[in-house]
């Protein structure tokens, strides 16, 4: 996959880890809980995995056992067609891992079922956010600030230029473009897990009750959301309908289908994309996006920095994204921080 | 400024030329003077503010944002204006009203290196993200949003229903905000008075002579030299050199500007002195030599002495204040021949007439153009007036036949605009030895044209079904398809691994019948180099 930043990879900053926290170790392919021999979001198959949410880069298949929320386990079952070793953990529930480590799952506000994982051992508290956002989202439970000693945070949009505008503004722009082009359709590229359902739910909240047409790859995930009680309103499959029927309607597809020949079956589509990267004009241009919608399921710069302030940890570990800038912010604000060089996390489409 | 900012945003997010023309046209019709003129100047890169440079913006930003955070952001975005527009802190309290484009221009013109540090921030504080982007783009000069000067002029012409040739004719004579141009086009007033100005006149162009013949009693033949077509104009004491698109390239060829001091409008081929084209008598170096001089803003003394330019004259549009364009070609040619002795011989010569007994003889002469490294022949009606653009039946270009080589499809990329979902850009290669003895394919060129719409559909499908690898947007194919590629010439080049660069390669035929191992070798292509 292409690297989004132009900068060279940051070497892991190595200074002696404060000895008290030696039970938790960042390794290249995941975070290792040493006394339990468990891994959080490992990028390869392990015996025991704790998974924060269902995106493929965090939820790989093939683990001996997988501890995750029921929603995340359902998503993984949909993707890997097996629920072998699934161990559901509900929000707020605490489980005890071998070696006397307690793990509590707390909503992260990223997508359906996404969780932060609070780990406690020997009186020390570590929170791993996985991916998270602070904005309200009708399709998932909101992020909860959880005080801790070590805060392991993502940094996907960790540059000060990233500000996600209120989603209502983006919905208004989408609906305005739709009504001014009644003979076209607006094709919205959106990540199939989370973003697509959030866009649909937000459209409904904005009063758009027309049928929304889906690329085939979206269907099962939307049904899964509905099974968990997320109302998405009337949905139709593009493949079941004619060009004429889709004029004046919204179509949602994975970003990869935007410029693909699949889109030739649509009536004069206006290409939109729902992504935090759309804040940058050239990113939109590169994908031939005519209507960029700045909608992200990740925290923007202000949310990332505010969250560190609110959680107020002794130390922040930054897992993936644009670590250097967030590290710099911590330095400027006299906060201890380090960047972890984890492999395999990708968020090009968010 | 909001309307101009919205226009820029809309232009950035569209790849269709027609939509761009419509957007600019709509803006020009709906915006009052002089705002629209300034905007048009900004779009066509016609504005320059001495006090505001890219470094000015960088300095302003690093006073407000941590320098490391600025540089990380700038690196990610890849555009200083955009990064600054995104990172500029919104001022506290209510935003003062946004300035108009004219007010912005007046303020920018009034700034000096001393005051810019204070005045530019005050201006930025009056704008939102899109407005700041538009302001910085306008202030620093280079838009780089995919709008050429020509597109701006075409949009202007279409918007007011005037001829783009007329717009070109007046354009260089008037300065932003082009009020007289709008008065003429939008309000039907008299056109701008452009006499005694060194203006660009639209070129007369030629149709390709496909398979036809012409009667040499009606047509005269000239060599088609391999340089760049230029217009050299002297009027009102000034000399300008224009490229075929009307761009002013005087600064790149200062020796030519000095060489013409008599009022005239001359059409010719810009070349570098040498012995490559047409042998010693031809007197012209290869196109490659000329290419080293193109696009330079500063010309070193070394360049001037090692690669001296000259113009081989084809035609005279005007001499000493007299417009010759309505005269037949033969009369203009007589006038040009009579005028030539008054020009410095080191900088000008005359394009020779090619004498032939009949058309068959001419065809025979054309066969020899490749050996002489000449592009081909021009055929001009003896009675043709000089008219802008391509008028059927007046001028023909009769290029030498293209070179052909069999190559193997290696990589494909999607096109843009109309072809956005199709794999329409093809990289092809030749074998670096005997393919049966483990030779490899090396890329030798890239082509985007030469196929029909039906062939494009077929190729698109072929690429998708034969992909073995992906590198970002690029698909690597299984190297199972042979193309016959046509091209004008091939040159040694350090830019490519094969050491060769083709000029104007296009897909001539899809050779489904030819197995890839029978495609040509690099050595075959190298043997075609005539540098």
From TrEMBL, chain B:
Pfam families: DNA_ligase_A_C, DNA_ligase_A_M. GO terms for biological process: cell division; DNA recombination; DNA repair; DNA replication. CDD domains: Adenylation_DNA_ligase_Bac1, OBF_DNA_ligase_Arch_LigB. Residues 302-432 form the ATP-dependent DNA ligase family profile domain. One of its GO terms (molecular function) is DNA binding. PROSITE patterns: DNA_LIGASE_A1, DNA_LIGASE_A3. It is an enzyme of class 6 (ligase). It catalyses: ATP + (deoxyribonucleotide)n-3'-hydroxyl + 5'-phospho-(deoxyribonucleotide)m = (deoxyribonucleotide)n+m + AMP + diphosphate. Its EC number is 6.5.1.1. This is DNA ligase (ATP). It comes from Altericroceibacterium spongiae.
């Amino acid at each position: 996959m292409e690297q989004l930043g132009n900068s060279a990879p940051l070497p892991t900053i190595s200074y002696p880890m404060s000895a008290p926290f030696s039970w938790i170790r960042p390794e290249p392919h995941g975070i290792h809980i040493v006394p339990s021999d468990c891994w959080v979001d490992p990028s390869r198959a392990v015996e025991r995995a704790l998974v924060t949410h269902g995106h493929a880069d965090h939820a790989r298949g093939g683990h001996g056992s997988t501890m995750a929320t029921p929603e995340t386990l359902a998503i993984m079952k949909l993707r890997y067609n097996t629920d072998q070793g699934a161990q559901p953990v509900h929000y707020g529930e605490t489980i005890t891992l071998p070696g006397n480590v307690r793990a509590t799952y707390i909503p992260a506000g990223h997508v359906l079922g996404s969780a932060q994982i609070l780990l406690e051992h020997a009186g020390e508290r570590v929170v791993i956010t996985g991916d998270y956002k602070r904005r309200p989202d009708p399709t998932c439970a909101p992020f909860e600030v959880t005080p801790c000693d070590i805060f392991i945070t993502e940094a996907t949009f960790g540059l000060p230029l990233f500000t996600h505008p209120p989603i209502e503004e983006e919905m208004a722009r989408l609906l305005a473009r739709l009504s001014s082009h009644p003979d076209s359709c607006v094709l919205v590229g959106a990540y199939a897990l989370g973003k697509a359902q959030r866009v649909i739910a937000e459209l409904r909240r904005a009063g758009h009750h027309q049928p929304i047409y889906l690329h085939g790859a979206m269907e099962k995930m939307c049904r899964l959301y509905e099974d968990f009680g997320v109302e998405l309103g009337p949905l139709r499959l593009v493949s079941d309908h004619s060009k004429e029927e889709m004029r004046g309607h919204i179509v949602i597809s994975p970003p990869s289908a935007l410029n693909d020949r699949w889109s030739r079956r649509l009536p004069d589509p206006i290409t939109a994309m729902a992504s935090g990267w759309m804040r940058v004009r050239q990113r939109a241009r590169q994908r031939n996006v005519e209507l960029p919608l700045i909608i992200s399921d990740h925290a923007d710069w202000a949310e990332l920095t505010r969250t560190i302030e609110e959680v107020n940890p002794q130390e922040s570990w930054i897992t993936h994204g644009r670590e250097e800038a967030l590290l710099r912010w911590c330095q400027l604000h006299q906060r201890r921080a380090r960047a972890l060089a984890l492999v395999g996390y990708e968020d090009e489409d968010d | 400024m909001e309307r101009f900012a919205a226009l820029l945003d809309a232009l950035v997010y569209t790849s269709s030329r027609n939509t761009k023309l419509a957007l600019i046209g709509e803006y020009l019709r709906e915006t009052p003077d002089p705002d629209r003129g300034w905007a048009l100047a900004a779009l066509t890169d016609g504005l320059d503010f001495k006090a505001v440079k890219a470094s000015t913006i960088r300095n302003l930003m690093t006073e407000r944002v941590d320098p490391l955070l600025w540089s990380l952001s700038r690196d990610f975005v890849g555009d200083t204006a955009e990064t600054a527009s995104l990172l500029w802190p919104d001022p506290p309290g209510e935003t003062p009203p946004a300035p108009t484009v004219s007010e912005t221009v007046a303020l920018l013109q009034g700034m000096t290196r001393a005051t810019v540090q204070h005045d530019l921030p005050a201006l930025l504080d009056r704008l939102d993200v899109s407005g700041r982007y538009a302001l910085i783009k306008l202030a620093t000069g280079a838009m780089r949003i995919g709008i050429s000067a020509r597109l701006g002029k075409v949009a202007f012409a279409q918007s007011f229903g005037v001829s783009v040739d007329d717009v070109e004719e007046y354009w260089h004579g008037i300065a932003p905000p082009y009020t007289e141009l709008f008065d003429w086009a939008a309000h039907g007033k008299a056109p701008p008075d452009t006499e005694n100005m060194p203006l660009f006149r639209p070129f007369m162009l030629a149709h390709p002579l496909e398979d036809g013949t012409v009667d040499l009693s009606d047509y005269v033949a000239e060599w088609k030299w391999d340089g760049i077509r230029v217009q050299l104009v002297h009027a009102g004491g000034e000399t300008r050199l224009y490229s075929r698109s009307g761009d002013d390239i005087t600064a790149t060829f200062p020796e030519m500007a000095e060489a013409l001091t008599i009022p005239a409008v001359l059409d010719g081929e810009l070349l570098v002195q040498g012995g490559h084209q047409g042998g010693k008598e031809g007197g012209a170096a290869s196109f490659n030599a000329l290419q080293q001089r193109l696009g330079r803003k500063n010309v070193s003394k070394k360049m001037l002495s090692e690669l001296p330019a000259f113009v081989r004259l084809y035609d005279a549009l005007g001499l000493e204040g007299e417009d010759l364009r309505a005269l037949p070609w033969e009369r203009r040619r007589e006038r040009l021949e009579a005028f030539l002795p008054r020009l410095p011989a080191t900088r000008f010569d005359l394009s020779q007439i090619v004498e032939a007994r009949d058309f068959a003889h001419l065809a025979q002469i054309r066969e020899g153009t490749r050996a002489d490294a000449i592009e081909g022949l021009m055929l001009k009606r003896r009675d043709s007036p000089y008219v802008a653009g391509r008028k059927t039946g007046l001028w023909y270009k009769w290029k030498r036949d293209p070179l052909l080589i069999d190559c193997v499809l290696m990589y494909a990329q999607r096109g843009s605009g109309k072809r956005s979902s199709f794999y329409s850009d093809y990289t092809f290669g030749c074998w670096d030895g005997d393919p049966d003895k483990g030779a490899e394919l090396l890329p030798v060129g890239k082509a985007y044209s030469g196929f029909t719409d039906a062939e494009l559909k077929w190729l698109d499908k072929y690429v998708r079904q034969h992909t073995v690898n992906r590198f970002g947007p690029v698909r690597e194919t299984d190297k199972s398809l042979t193309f016959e590629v046509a091209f004008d010439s091939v040159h040694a080049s350090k830019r490519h691994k094969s050491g060769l660069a083709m000029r104007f390669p296009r897909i001539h035929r899809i050779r489904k019948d030819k197995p890839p191992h029978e495609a040509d070798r690099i050595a075959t292509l190298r043997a075609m180099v005539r540098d």
